[in-house]
Amino acid sequence: MRGARKRLCSALIVAYGLFSLYAAYTVFLRPRRPAAPRPQHRDRRGPRDHVALGNEEWNPWEGDERNELVASRQRYEANLKMIKNARSHPEQTSLRVQIWGKAAIGLYLWQHIFGGQLEPADATAQWREGSQKAGKTYFSFITGPSVVPGYFSVEAENVVLVVNGREKAKIAYATQWLHYAGTLVQTHKIQHVAVVLLGNERCNNDWIQPYLKRNGGFVNLLFVTYDCVLVNGEDIFQWPLGVATYRNFPVVEPSWSMLRSPRSYLCNFLGTVYKNSSRETLMEILKQDGLDKLCWIAAREQWQPQETNESFKNYQDALLQSDLTLCPVGINTECYRIYEACSYGSLPVIEDVMTPGDCGNSSIYHSAPLQLLKTMGAPFIFIKSWKELPAVLEKEKKMSLQEKIQRRKKLIEWYQNFKVWMRQKFINTLENSFLPTDKG
């Protein structure tokens, strides 16, 4: 019995050994037959650019993934290059400018021209500030009643002072700030000063001249509103009046309805009618043939510096619901109404005549008045007399909605480009004046 078991075990061991030898031969030594080619996979939706080959499966996103890898690599290399450039030129191409907004026109500069934000958003706040990088320059902006000479941090060696010089009381306040800036220059706490001046409507701005560097003062650059005869394109530049930010006129973003919806009125005029002015002529002409029934007209006899919520809403609605905005001259030809109409795509109809005062003489400045806007190709309607208005309105009646839509697009696009151009001109002028020039 024991011998039979021994023989059985020996047979099993021999059989296991033979099986192991056969398996080893099959795996390692036996030649392989070539695999039969796999049929190409055909998608029901049609042939593909990429076909499955061998044991690989077709990846429908393979091209996108490859492109994304390439794009990602390019972005990485571009960012790396930008960082290297920044490190190799840390200060040579950078400028820090602090803007002191001590007149409402400063808000037009910061919020409308620069597209900057302010914190807090509340327009009645005592202190508001913002910052942004533009060109080679880092700008910071401060404004509000709490911004008082000597009671805030001067954070840059280059300053832009925004002041109002329309009347004696405003000039007195502006000179306090100029004296403060002059003291900082003398004590080497700041190096350069530029002034943005809301000028006098009759262009009586001689009081600023002693402060200009060209006249022995410390102000390197002056940006001044209206057709001031001081403008030379070298260190004195014309600046747009802009919208009435002192009445909190907003930054208006174009909308589909603003561009494409029919408007209820041919024109609008909401404003003060002064005695013995061309505005009286305008009112008389509008009453002829019932033209005033086609337009949104709200005339008043006395100027109101502040709007009520209701009157301000009416004014905005009038701009939005009128194809044309009538812009008669006041003390000056340039008025806030021009820029506010552009914001809403309502084409300004401008009384193109010089007003009394010291503004640009049309015999010398051929494009005056409004030479800045005309130089920039403003697509407005310019008339010399309101007697031309009936013909303008008659032509307006015959225009199709599509023609008006195209005109609105052109106007809004021009105004946006105008603001971009003014921003870039402002930045370039500061950088060319304030940045040290390479002499190597």
UniProtKB/TrEMBL annotation:
Residues 246-435 form the RXYLT1 C-terminal domain. One of its GO terms (cellular component) is Golgi apparatus. It comes from the Eukaryota. GO terms for molecular function: ribitol beta-1,4-xylosyltransferase activity. Pfam families: RXYLT1_C, RXYLT1_N. Keywords: Transferase. Residues 34-55 are annotated as: Disordered. Residues 34-45 have a biased composition (Basic residues). Residues 97-240 form the RXYLT1 N-terminal domain. One of its GO terms (biological process) is protein O-linked glycosylation via mannose. The keyword Transferase applies. This is RXLT1 xylosyltransferase. It comes from Urocolius indicus (Red-faced mousebird).
